[in-house]
C-alpha cells in the first residue's frame, strides 16, 4: 500500500484536448437561445423530430431543454419537471390537443445523454441514447408559422422556464427518425450521407465557440441569438471524436473500466489506450487516488467531474461598456456581457466596423481600447461618439477612417500607409500628421484647432476640407491632383493654386488674404468663392475678361473691392498706353462709374491688364 501511495502523486504531462463547443445555461442568469419563426419549416406537416445532447442538473423549477412551446396550438418540446429527474415530452396540435409522455426518473444529472422526440402522424416517441423510452398515440399538425424554437428555456404563458446545464448538437427534422437512425448518428455530425439529409430543417451544432449567435447549418438559415448568461465552452459530449471527461479508455462510456485503467496507470502498467486529460478528473495536474475517488463518486451518481478546460481562447481588453456591448450583440464578443473582454479571434479578421452614433447606445463610446486587435480592419466608422484619442498604429491595413464629431485631441495615423479617406472633422485637434499617408485622396479636417498642415507628401490628394481652423499658411504646390479645396474661415494671408491644374472648386471665404493667385491654366473649370476677404483687392487669374464676366459680386464669388489681373504686382497708378481699348471703369466698390476728380478708379482693358488711376486736377 505504501508503494501504491507514493505512485499516486507522480506528475503527468497531460495531453491537450481539442473539441467542438457546447452551450452552458444557468436559470439564475436567465440564459437561453431564441431562434425566431422556425415553426414555419414543419408547419402543416405530419411528421417531425427533434434531438440533441443534454447534460442537466437538478432544478427547483421546470427546466426547458429545447423545442417549440406556445401552450396553445404549437408545442413540440422536451422539458425537465420541477425538482425531479422526470422528462416531459409534449406534442400539442393546431386544435390545441396535447399529447404527453412523462418519463419518470429518466434523466441522469451531471452527465450527457441523448434525447429525441419523434412524431409520425400517429404516435409520438421519446428516445434516450438511441433506445425507446415510451410512446403514445397522437394526431394532427402544427399550423403556426411564427413560433420560436428555443434552446435552454421554454415559454409558459409569457414566463420562461430556464434550464441548468449544457446542450450540444440540436437538430430539427420534418420526418420521424427511427431508433436505428438516431442511434447511428447521435455521435456523428450530420452530413449529406445521412439517409434523411433532405429532411433536416434545422441544425445547430453549437460549434461557434464565440459570440452571441449560433448558426443554422441548413439552407433555411434560421440563426439563433444568445441571451442572458448563456456561455460557450469546449464540448465534452461525444461529438466529432470529443472525449468524455472520465472516459480514460475512449470507449464512449464512463464506467468502472476507466477506474481500473487509472489504477493500472498509477501502478506503472498503463493500458494501450489511455487519455490522460480524461483521467485527470479533478484538473489538479496529477493523476492519483483523488481522481479514482472522484470518478467512483460520479459513476455512483453522487458527484461530478471537472476535467481541465481546453486551450483558453485569447481575449482582447475592451473596457468601454458600450463598445463591448456592441461587439457582444453582433457576435464579436465572448458571450459574457460587461466583463471588459471579447475573444480576439472574433475580431481579428473583421474588415468593416461601424460604431457611429454610439453604436446604438444612449451615451456613446468614450474609449476605443481594443481596436488595436482588429488587425485586418479596412474601414472604421466611429463618428458621433465621445472619444478623446485614438491610436490606429496596429491597424496597418486601414484604408478609410471616419472619427468626425468626437472630442479627439490626439489622433495617430502615422502607421496607416494605405489610408485613402480620412475624416477627423469637428474635433479638438491642434496637430495632425499625414506625412506618412502618401495614398491619401480625401482629407476632411475642418472644425478643429489646427495652426499648420503639412501636405507636401500627399500628392494623391484630390479633396481637402480644412475650413474653420487657425491656419495662417497653406502650401498646396505639391498637390497637383487636387480637385476640391475648402479652406475658408482660417487666417490665411496668401494662397497660391497655380500648380493645382485639376482644381474644380475652391472656397477660401473668411480669411485674411492679401494675395490670391488662381493662375492654374484651368480657370474656366473652376468654381470660386472668396468672399469676406476685406484686405484683398487684386486677384491673379488666367483670363481677366472671362473672370470679370463669370466671377462676380452678384453671383457671390467675390467682394465688391475685388478685381482681376494677370499680374497684380504689375498694376499701378499710371497712364495706360494708347494701343489698348478700355472695357470697364469701376470704383473700389466694383461699381461702374465715369469717375470724378481726385477719386481712385480701376481701369480694365481688352488686353487683360488692369490699372489703378487717380485723376488729379
Question: What would your notes on this structure say?
Answer:
There is one protein chain. This protein has 617 residues and is mainly β. Among the domains are: 2-17 and 243-299, Orthogonal Bundle (Type 1 dockerin domain), CATH 1.10.1330.10; 21-234, Jelly Rolls (Sandwich), CATH 2.60.120; 314-449, Ribonuclease Inhibitor (Leucine-rich repeat, LRR (right-handed beta-alpha superhelix), Alpha-Beta Horseshoe). The strands form eight sheets. The chain has a nine-stranded parallel beta sheet with strand order 21-22-24-26-27-28-29-31-33, with no helix packed on it. Strands 1, 3, 8, 9, 10, 14, 15 and 18 form an eight-stranded antiparallel beta sheet that branches. An eight-stranded antiparallel beta sheet has the order 7-6-5-4-11-2-17-16, with no helix packed on it. The relative contact order is 0.07.
Say what the CATH topology of the domain at 21-234 is.
Jelly Rolls
What is the CA-based Rg, rounded? 38 Å
The count of strands amounts to: 38
Stretches where pLDDT falls below 50 for ≥5 residues? 1-19, 571-578
- From the N-terminal CA to the C-terminal CA, the straight-line distance is 133 Å
Number of helices: 7
Write the CATH architecture name of the domain at 21-234.
Sandwich
The largest sheet, given as strand count, sense and whether it forms a barrel, is: 9 strands, parallel
- How are the strands of the largest sheet arranged? 21-22-24-26-27-28-29-31-33
Q: Give the integer mean of the pLDDT values.
A: 87
